[in-house]
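TA notes. Do not distribute before section.
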Amino acid sequence: MPSFLVTFTLPEALRPVARSHQKCLDNALLQTSAAALQVLSLDAKPLGGQIGMGGGLHPWTRDMASHPHVHSLIPAGAWSPDGAQWLAPRYEDWLVPVRALSHIFRGKCKEKIAPANRLEHAPAHGWPQAWVTHCEPVGTGTEVIPSLAPSIRRIAMTNHRSEKRKDGYVPFRCKASGSKEWQHQTLPAHAFIRRFLQHVLPQGFIPVRYYGFLRPTCRNVLTHIRPLLSTSACHLLPPPDTPNQPPRQPPPATPPARQCTTGRGPLVLIQQLSRPTRAPP
């Protein structure tokens, strides 16, 4: 079925705090991003029901810089509170308002890390600025999962991208954002090790989690949702012909292209001559 990919990004001002308190901030990113989506989806204007999602933490860029963000894959729709119907979004390319989602995400993240006494280490200018959230349709889940899996399951730098160490420096290859061409960078060995180790997750940390009706404890709910999906898909089909209406005629067939008998090329209609108003002399 159609799906949406929602991305939550931690502001640059708070990324040093995320590196110093990795377990606390990474947990907060996954939990608050899911909570913000659930709160907004229960509102009657966007959807008005419960959604299901799978969120994955991705803390690095292609050159191993710190960039904590969460990718949430969401089926396009929600389960109604009474469990009687599947609620589809109002538009094919729109799920929830991203500006409202950004404000809810920021507020819930602040509430989450406040009891852990981490706000004193966070700069004050990191909270008033807008937090980036992005939502886009990505087709079916089977199309986007293969592109997300390598960034979630692999490490920050694979062996084939790092080249031979020389004179205390480590050269490696990376691709800039939005580019498909490889670029070469060189870092001192200690800087390369530091950049790599900042993305090693704490022991026992789960980077991929499921929320809503996609939680492992809600598998019995999926047996009620699947029939609703097939019913909602039927509403998208054109209604059948009724006895009071004439049967629909098939669209006229396109005439085959005519060819020139001399050059064997296609004939192109340039202008259609009007019928003469009088008989020829």
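Switch to the second chain here.
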Amino acid sequence: MNENDKKKACFFSSQKPLIIAELGTSHNGDIIKAKELISAAKQAGAVCVKFQIVYADEILHPNTGVVPLPGGDIRLYDKFKALETSAEFYTEIKEYTESLDLLFLCTPFGMKSASILKELQPQMVKIASPELNYTGLLEEIASWELPVLLSTGVSKLADIEKSLDICSLLPASQICLLHCVTSYPAPETDYNLRVLPNLANIFGVSVGVSDHSSDPELVPALSVGMGASVIEKHFCLSKNDPGLDDPIALPPDDFSKMVKAISRSIKYGCEKTIHDLKEERGNDLIEKILGNGVKKLAPSEKANYSRTNRSIHALRDIKTDEIIKKGDYAVLRTEKVLRPGLEPCFEKMIEGKAARNDIPSGEGIRFEDI
């Protein structure tokens, strides 16, 4: 497919939803494991596999906090650092993916990973929920004029509107909003799937779901009934594997169940899908999953707002009255223990300003600090 064909390609159809197996970093840098995941995902019914190009320094600060793992607590930064691989690694997995007639998809997290991804000449790009407000990254990706998936976990309507404004050079047919709940795992009852047609009507673009819930069938089947053009779900070979997302991912048998549930939903339509699931799982549960259709932060993700998404953080200890220079700050996820800073749209205004207060390395730079 040449460059013009890529720009014209349309991947978003509610009659034939794009089923994405999110492989993320479950390969742990092992090319053999990566190929096993790709092959297993195809056999389970995926038509697209997604990876993440991870470089710790463009995601978070070393002081951002720790995550509990079976071997003990580890700095989140160190976990991401261990997941870094070479550009050649992604070239090889893209070639293998396409040799199996699967669509290759990847998420960049900053300018370095975006540069690597651009060299791979992808047909489509995915922006993760925490980067929905990363102005500089969105501007770069939009300039490629490729179809874009925008994940909208831990976001409000205003956040979505801002991101779409940045991507306004793209035709609406090339944009899909992925409704998402930024919690791992996310309760099925937090998904409020009636929001899907509302988002489509408000913004005039396709919609889909990036599903972090545990059940392989409920959210995907109901999402298709609500008009989803894309269903993304984490995939693993085993929930006991050591990947960061493996505990909340679907192993092959469960992923196959999901694919079959999606097919049934397409075949029988919205009303029958809802009716049958209410008969099988109970009216109250299904109504809670469908929700009221009002776009709000889900209960399980409220605490993550302004922490999971991006803001401007100091990269060194900055003393009062010091002039802040380029390289003294970066747009990062706040995450665990640091304070949030200014939104990424203010990044170009920081350079040359004097610090009013001491700003410890890692902490967010606020209006009152400059």
